[in-house]
Design goal:
The chain folds into 2 domains: 8-63, no CATH class; 66-113, no CATH class. Helix content is 48%, strand content 5%. It has helices at 15-19, 31-63, 66-80, 83-87, and strands spanning 8-10, 24-26. It has a two-stranded parallel ribbon. Helix 1 links the parallel strand 1 and strand 2 (24-26). The relative contact order is 0.11.
Length: 121
């Protein structure tokens, strides 16, 4: 989808949520439905596939690109860092937007050491 390719997915996990109306979603364990969805995309022609692919790329950029994911995590972490956390001594300041792709803070420390949750790494 991020490459502008319309997808055919089975309705498992969050596949339908991710693809939504930018591709085809079929029931799991239904190879005939899967083949029919591929056939319909092929027969739709290049103009329709290009339209779906453009919509797919826009959907990924809007909802699943790094800035959108960072914003989602910041919202979750700010809820964890609420007034009850302060009373228990659990309050900690952190900035998710400055993290790099390797899961380390700008100072090089491991991410799990700077988050207000029990470390698992």
């Amino acid at each position: 989808m991020a490459c502008g390719t319309p997808c055919v997915v089975t309705d498992v996990g969050d596949s339908a949520l991710i693809v939504e109306n930018t591709g085809k979603v079929v029931a799991p364990n239904d190879p005939h439905a899967l083949a029919e969805a591929w056939r319909s995309l092929i027969e739709a022609g290049p103009t329709e596939r290009r339209r779906l692919g453009t919509a797919a790329r826009a959907r990924i950029r809007e909802h699943f690109a790094l800035p959108a994911i960072v914003q989602s995590y910041q919202k979750i972490y700010s809820q964890l860092d609420g007034p009850h956390a302060a009373k228990s001594g659990f309050r900690r300041t952190f900035t998710i937007s400055s993290l790099n792709f390797l899961g380390k803070s700008p100072t090089g420390s491991r991410l799990c050491k700077s988050l207000p949750i029990a470390p698992v790494c």
